[in-house]
Amino acid sequence: MQTRISEEYKNTTIGQEADRILRNCVHCGFCTATCPTYQLLGDELDGPRGRIYLIKQLMEGQPASRKTMQHLDRCLTCRSCETTCPSGVEYTHLLDIGRQQVEKNVSRPLYQRVLRFLLRKIMTNRSSFRQITRLASITNPLLPAQLRMHTNRRTLKPFAATTEHTRSVLLLEGCVQPVLSPDINEASKHLLDRAGYNVITASKAGCCGAISHHLSAEEDALSIMKQNIDSWWPYIESGCSAIVSNASGCGTTLKEYANYLRHDAHYADKADRVSALCKDISELLDASTIEKIRLPAKLSVAFHAPCTLQHGLQLKDHLTELLTNIGFELQTVRDEHLCCGSAGTYSIFNPRIAQQLRRDKLHNLCRDDPQYILTANIGCQHHLQSGTHIPVKHWVEVVAQQIA
Q1: CB 225 within 8 Å of CB 142
Q2: Which residue among 3, 33, 63, 176 has its CA within the 20 to 30 Å range from the CA of 235?
Q3: What is residue 178's predicted lDDT score, i.e. its pLDDT?
Q4: Is 332 exposed, middle or buried (CB count within 10 Å of its CB: 0-12, 13-18, 19+)?
Q5: How far apart are CA 151 and CA 388, in angstroms?
Q6: CB-side neighbour CA atoms (13 Å) of 124
């Protein structure tokens, strides 16, 4: 793709990065075939190729509008297009640049600005979020459907280690997960203990930074990432084996710390180390561990592979093989590559698109009446559960409950 980057951006870091990414695009359109929003809306500007053109125009000096903002906002950041792209276009990084520049130059409606601010401040603060969920238990029936909260009661006892292991890992507990689905972290501790790891949770490490980043609050996102790094660094220096994520959305963000902080003189090297240490929990369960956690009986389930697992971490095949070896009978699911519509806070700001994607996804997941729908990301879990009576669980929950 030929570019003529404007003088405003020509000699800047973001201008040069955008130029490099844009020049890799060959207009082939393969990405549109796997883009959920293009498939749903049929608008070129609601597909990756169209959004790339919008960002190209922006970097070449054409003014952005609320229409530009709307088309960029409608992207789920599912990265399916990156998996499909034969030219290796770094679409997500380009989209980050485009969104940041549009955010600086186009004013959002007041209600959006207020809601985005509240979501950032509440969802990334575990204490505030816990208070809001308590209030929501009373006010839920009065809220719009996309703002209702669905919490799961704790069923697993809080984990207490009985054996000291020679290896230790840090577990990222997350921001909303301990409140909405506390069993996920407890189950993860059980499985990591079976795998031979001491589990450490750094008290000051919470949100991974994804919520603020996807809401274009870049300074907030970077501040959260730096706080996490500072919280983990003493343990890393002491020889911690890995930083474990049990939410594929958080794991994908942790893997990107090296990119987000690459220009920060004080944090670039540390961020690179954190990204290298980040592991999805499934990567720490070897063959000997599988023998210890194998299910006593086959369970027929439908597995929803989150976009962040498929296209971000690229661990879908690894995890489906692991689940099969543990003893799950995985049903065939059509259109596995398409997003469920959760995408962090996307379902709040784009409810019509998110609900249609959820209906399509649940139609494919529920076709053979599974005992459970399994997933690997808290956001997907709660988004899907709000549309079906079939239990939607993180896979670690079901394994821990079966072997407890």
Answers
A1: no
A2: 176
A3: 83
A4: exposed
A5: 15
A6: 27
Cα separation, 164 vs 247, whole angstroms: 26
Quote the mean pLDDT of the chain. 91
Please say whether the beta carbons of 190 and 404 come within 8 A: yes
Rounded Cα distance between 43 and 49, Å, is: 11
Pairwise CA distance, residues 366 & 358, whole Å? 12
CA 216/CA 238 separation, integer angstroms: 34
CA distances from 97 to 56, 145, 148, 258, 298 (A): 11, 32, 32, 16, 47
Q: Give CA–CA dist 161/184, Å, rounded.
A: 16
Would you say the C-alpha torsion 310, 313, 315, 319 has a positive or negative sign?
Answer: negative
CA angle 101, 105, 110 (to 5 degrees): 115
**pLDDT tens-digit readout, 315-357:** 999 999 999 999 999 999 999 999 999 999 999 999 999 999 9
Half-sphere exposure of 387 (CA within 13 A, CB side): 24
The residues pairing with 83 across neighbouring beta strands, listed in sequence order, are: none
Task: Quote the distance between the C-alpha of residue 156 and its chain's center.
Answer: 25
Task: Answer whether 236's CB lies under 8 Å from 275's CB.
Answer: no
Residue 283 to residue 275: CA distance in whole angstroms? 15
Q: Are 181 and 394 in contact (CB under 8 A)?
A: yes
**Contact criterion met (CB below 8 Å) for 120 and 217:** yes
Measured between alpha carbons, how far is 309 from 372 in angstroms, rounded to an integer?
19
Average pLDDT, integer, range 29-41: 94
Q: Residue 73 in 3-state DSSP?
A: helix
Encode pLDDT of 91-147 as tens digits: 999 999 999 999 999 999 999 999 999 988 888 877 777 777 766 666 555 555 555
Chain segment 131-175, per-residue pLDDT in tens: 777 666 665 555 555 555 565 666 777 777 778 899 999 999 998
Whole-model pTM above 0.70? Answer: yes
Give the rounded percent of residues in the chain with a pLDDT score beyond 70.
Answer: 95
Query: Do the strands 242-245 and 278-280 form a parallel or antiparallel pair, or are they unpaired?
Result: parallel
Q: Give the pLDDT confidence score for residue 138 in this predicted structure.
A: 62
Cα distance between the two ends of the chain: 56
CA distance 159 to 187: 8
